[in-house]
Amino acid sequence: MGTKSSVEQLNSFLRGEMSAVETYQQAIEKLEAFSTSRDQLLVNLKSHQDRVMMLRDAVVALGGTPADGSGPWGAFAKVVEGGAKAFGEKAAVAALEEGEDHGLADYKRGLDDLDPQSRTLVMSKLLPEQELTHKRLSNVKHRM
Question: Is the dihedral of CA 34, 126, 100, 4 positive or negative?
Answer without folding.
Answer: positive
